[in-house]
Amino acid sequence: MTFPKLDLIHRHRLYSLNNVPPARTLLDVLREELRATDTKEGCASGDCGACTVVLSQPDGSRAHSVNSCIRMAHSAHGLKVTTAADLSADGQLHPVQQALVDHHASQCGFCTPGFVMSLYDLYQRVDGKAVTREEALEAVSGNLCRCTGYRPIIDAACAMHTYPRPAPAAAELKFTDTRDPLNPSYALPTQLHQLLGLRAKFPLAQLMAGGTDAGLWVTQQHRRFEQVIDLTRVKELLRIERYPHHIAIGAAVNLHDAFAALAESRPSVAHFAERFAGRPVRQSGTLGGNVANGSPIGDSMPLLMALGAQVVLMAARKGRIVSRHLPLENFYLGYRKTALQADEVLCWIVVPKPMPGEQLVHYKVSKRWEDDISAVCLAMQWHLKNGEVQSVRIAAGGVAATPARAYQTEAVLTAAAWNEAAIAKAQHTLAQEFSPISDMRASADYRRKLLQQLLQRAWLEQQGHAVAQLGDLS
User: 186-352 is classed in which CATH architecture?
Assistant: First the structure.
């Protein structure tokens, strides 16, 4: 079988690689074909950040850091790839690199290229201006260091603006794409009708968005894809549309931008987004992919269910495009099983805007504070009227085969007085409503107890009690 060619811009040169398999990762191509061995493989799962690179348009615009170890190489077709060794020019280190050297922020050096690229992403975003320690910590939340320690790295991040700005980059290459975007081996459609036509023709092809989970199937399970349809170039699905009563988030919008859009009307979501994953994962993965993937421990789904989100499923049938809306909780039928039909694509997530008086909490409990998978995720939205619960939506992840609504607990609270007795009754119901499993992240008993405690936490916080956050101790 002949695979499509892959064009990458790297170090002011256009590389055209022929016959690149669909499941080949960007990291493998960088190291083995382009000899960019400054980019390291640490975990092959997007956890450690040693493989971090920056992707951008050929002219350098729309730059963002990603984990190259779980990013399919073809998803970067036609893009510029910047790695740590690209930043220095004519023997002059980039301010990020020089700051790390001067603050003794590297020891064994294996993780350093990844830190360089995460901080370079930050440096570019703030346009060389000063950053706070909090901004620096957020920028490297997807990077692990096992020997230097984080203090000198954060010190370097806060000092990088004090160094002379680098000279303007050389003129970028002009790139003319001659690849067939509808090649079924790895298709990169740019319009919705192309995407839906491909899906109708190839219902068994692997749909790919950011690939932050599908990349693990390749690196950890050694799966190979015969055909891939990549959503991330479809113009319609890259939009966030704002209406008077809801927003519609396209399935190709990355997690960082999607959470930012939700946080416009619900500011607390911004903190939840930072707990979701490190920035490279949030800038590569998509909200549509997270939802469609249907993992029982996905963090976005409980929040979206609590907010009353719906998904829009679309297909091309008999020469016309058809669509249907489903409440998100009805989309999941079983473990990794959804209501998506063979010719359908999840195209939009529709989220109602908050009504006056909305109360919202969302909790993630995991072994690591940052960049970790949940043991339990709980989200709750409610409205009170005259001291009674007028409406309530509770959703949880990590406690069942799918993310799920807690309907029985909602029924206990609806029309009940908002008091400690009602919360206690709801806690008892919530513990009985799900049958979690024991695994490497938590025992079943711990998960049930945690559900109860998080519900009580919501009550205490609404009553004005100061509740300690684990992050306060870091």
Answer: 2-Layer Sandwich (3.30)
